[in-house]
Hints:
Elements lengths: L1 E6 L2 H15 L6 E6 L10 H6 L7 E2 L7 H19 L3 E5 L3 H13 L3 E4 L11 H12 L2 E4 L2 H9 L7 E3 L3 H24 L5 E4 L3 H4 L2 H14 L5 E4 L2 H10 L8 E4 L4 H9 L3 E4 L2 H10 L3 E3 L8 H4 L3 E3 L4 H13 L15 H15 L1
Parallel strand pairs: 1-2, 1-4, 2-3, 4-5, 5-6, 6-7, 8-9, 8-11, 9-10, 11-12, 12-13
Helix pairs in contact: 1-7, 1-15, 3-4, 4-5, 7-11, 9-14
The structure holds uridine-diphosphate-N-acetylglucosamine and uridine-5'-diphosphate.
Uridine-diphosphate-N-acetylglucosamine binds next to helix 1, helix 5 and helix 10.
Amino acid sequence: MKILHVVGARPNFMKIAPVMRALSTLPGDVRQILVHTGQHYDRNLSDIFFQELEMPAPDYNLGVGSGTHAWQTAQVMTAFEPLAMELRPDWVVVVGDVNSTLAAALVCSKLGIPVAHVEAGLRSFDRSMPEEINRLLTDQIADLLFTPSPDGDENLLREGIHPDKIQRVGNVMIDTLVRLLPRAEQRWSSLQASLGVGDYLLVTLHRPANVDHPQTLAEIYTALEEASHWLPVYFPVHPRTRQALDRLGLPSGSGVLHLLEPLGYLDFLAMEAHARLVLTDSGGVQEETTYLGVPCLTARPNTERPVTLQQGTNQLVAARTSTLVEAIQRRLMEPRKPHEPPEFWDGHAAQRIARVFAGWMEKA
Ligand code: UD1
Ligand code: UDP
């Protein structure tokens, strides 16, 4: 069986790495091909993860780069179509909800190449989010849908997806966390020495709704400055956010508000695991803090990962200075709640995916 995996942006790498490892243990003739669309290309958004996650180098890099949504999606489609036609894989695996995910799925559906979507069924019910459009459309055309949590199954069934296509396997991003947390912990003491930190707030922000609106970004930044009077703030800044901060002319960190370059996976995971509190708008970070039991504030009006609110340590908060400051203060005073990771967020999701493919191989 020939399986082609498509990745493009930072969170895709943590999701595909365990899937490729698990498939490589299947008996029989399984050939895996990795295609990087090039949506993310900076070392700290791409190459570093191949090293740290011990992934094979991509067999193909489409070198697409940045642009508007239509341009980027079209570029991936145009570059990927001839490759898919030439390689004719038995399955194409796409992960998550980025533009590369939808573009590859769309190409394959028109070529009659079966598509498996890992992390299917998540819904924020907010169509102003580009990722929600990518999720809805990818799930409609995928042939096999691997969901991380029961809400994913419910959403897909409600949208008319045949139950036979849906497989609840759990969370592959947590597979990577479980495997690499011991290695991240090994780095903690030297990281702690260089940062000189006790309690701190860890921040990530990159959603267009927060960072592309100057007023909203300024409100969040002011809240971070205020919070930095009570505890150090570490903020590895995504390039989209860096550009937005530069446009606003906001200072690049002051006092104990530390604006950093984007971190590699191991350093970020160590910082996450030891944070007193995390403020984010990232999907993956909501999940990782849920698993780790680290208190998390998500600066968004909704989340496509409701299980992180119900079972995890996550809480939604409006991106306004006063609301953020109040929420940070409150969470800092609260004792940590007992927590239990959601079902199948256990380090074995990718093995469940591999078993499904093994079943397909037997049928073929
Ligand atoms: C993308 C995904 C988002 C995901 C995020 C993960 C879409 C629609 N969005 O958002 O779902 O959560 O990745 O981080 O697919 N840039 C660089 N260097 C890079 C890549 C990007 O400087 O290596 C800059 C470019 O100016 C680019 C901007 O960042 O225009 C945004 O990049 P893009 O890939 O379009 O979207 P993200 O905001 O990264
Ligand atoms: N992450 C990282 N370095 C950072 C910030 C995040 O390695 O500086 C990791 C984080 O641990 C998680 C993933 O990136 O595994 C989340 O990706 P991102 O927030 O870019 O995208 P999203 O999950 O929102 O789609």
